[in-house]
Amino acid sequence: MSIFSEENVFNDFIEKIGKAAQKICKDMRDLTLLVGDITRTSWYVIKHPSKLRWRDVGYYMDLCGSQALPIVIMICFLMGLILAFQAAVQARKFGGEIFVADAVGFSILKELGPLMVAMIATGRAGSAFAAEIGTMKVNEEISALETMGFSPTRFLVIPKLVAMLIAMPVLTVFGDVSGLFGGFIVGITMLGLPGMAYYTRTIAVLHPSTMALGLIKSIVFGILIAIVGCLRGFQSESDAQGVGRSTTSSVVTSIFMIVIADSVLTMLYTFLGY
Amino acid sequence: MKNNKKPIVEVRNLTIGYDRTTVMEELNFCVHTGEIFVILGGSGCGKSTLLKHLIGLYEPFRGDIKIFGESIVRSDEDEKRELMRQFGVTYQGGALFGSLTLEENVSLPLEEYTTLSKDEIKQRAYDKLALVDLQGYEQYMPSEISGGMKKRAGLARAMALDPKLLFFDEPSAGLDPITSAELDRLILRLRKDLGTTIVIVTHELDSIFTVADRVIMLDKRTKSIIAEGEPHYLKKNSENEWVRDFLNRSNLKQV
Fold it and tell me: Is B107 among the domain residues?
């Protein structure tokens, strides 16, 4: 019988589905266990703040925050610029150039600012978390932590999570301002709007709550990036290729989960009337 | 040989493995207080897997492991952590935390589990590093020292809380004969000076004949212990031909 017979192809197909389902179930189980452990450990750290490794928090804030700042500013500025260009083409047809400020302001603050910062943080921080924990696993450092009676979650996950919770909203604020500035540049050059008019329009349509909605998103994205990066690190196989695969997987999974979370939050905001 | 000392590690009817593969079945042995006990066997026979079960990293399929009289298998997560604090483990590559200096690595358990002041912790870390002949290297990062030094620094960290029981995973692996012999002397000194009970996983015969009071030999084919006793006695008198061949480094063939 040929290996390409109909029966073999069907069996392979069923086997692949089975393995994929098994992997998804394992991922869900591992994720649930990690989230449970993070919740338990967070409560312990809240009660005993001195038990948190604050030096590590500072290191990760630097890695995920200040070191990412130039690229965040650059990308968000260009995003604002592109958005304003696209909006300007349409707005000009109706003589509504001033409404470019509305389009850029709302899009950047509510959607693109947090989303672009999350994408950058995924590529920088999420992959670094997975690679770091994966390499520690290869070097038996995780085993060493466990046999010393230390919780790997407290030592490795909580400092990253705290750093992301602080760094992500701060980066988002910088990203938002850069994006708005990108739109402003297009407004005063390509559209010929007076700078003060564009600025006044932006201030008039945007409320602090608009920015707050984006910042809430950025906090949720930060939590997802930290958890997924650490999860993939712990799931890493104990060899160099395994670490590489877990790093790639952390980026792909984080992006997927960020987009899902963004959709859910956007629908929720709309439902609540924001 | 009968040993009247109290067992510090007791393994009863232990069946171990990973995923769905059974590696060893129905293992029974004890490690007595003050003893240097070696788990011996050919490559891939399951020595390191057994060690990972003994130190609580893996769950066995069946059976029980008692350390200091407490079951590490049946304890809950918190009880297991409490038990783990009472023994030290040194890993093949040292398993030092790469982002910390040697002093910080050794200080870590002291910061977590003692109420010593910063100065006292620093002094204790320096003392432990001096004990393994690493004085002068306290501020080095793990990436700046050799493999043998990493193992010794790992040992200093494992000894930070003065445990009564130490586990070694392949202490001689990857070391030159002189460094390996130095490590053997260090192990003997630890037992003599501190009375530490030591369990070693290795297949380095020179080390075994230098340090071991008693060995068990694992066999991959039968998934069981095929010899138990003093290494010099087994070398000459073991009933199992393969054990004699292995210990005499001659005509190695599986019987």
Answer: no
Report pLDDT digits (tens) over A258-270: 999 999 999 999 9
B194 reaches A (C-beta below 8 A): no
Q: Do B113 and A151 touch (CB under 8 A)?
A: no
Closest CA to B168 of A149, A147, A138: A147
Neighbours of B128 (CB within 10 A): 24
Q: Give the ipTM.
A: 0.82
Question: Sign of the C-alpha dihedral, residues B242, B238, B166, B14?
Answer: positive
Domain that holds residue B1: 1-86+202-255
Chain A CB contacts of B58 under 8 Å are none
**What φ, ψ does residue B19 adopt, rounded to 5°?**
50, -115
Q: Does A144 reach chain B within 8 Å, measured CB to CB?
A: yes
Q: Closest Cα to residue B44, out of B69, B18, B65, B14? A: B18
What total number of domains does chain B contain?
Answer: 1
Identify how many contiguous H helices and E strands chain B contains and give both numbers.
9, 10
Closest CA relative to residue B214, chosen from B67, B2, B28, B26: B2
Is residue B80 situated within a structural domain? yes
* Measured distance CA(A23)–CA(A252) in Å, rounded: 15
What's the whole-model pTM score? 0.84
Nearest CA distance, B9 vs chain A (angstrom)? 16
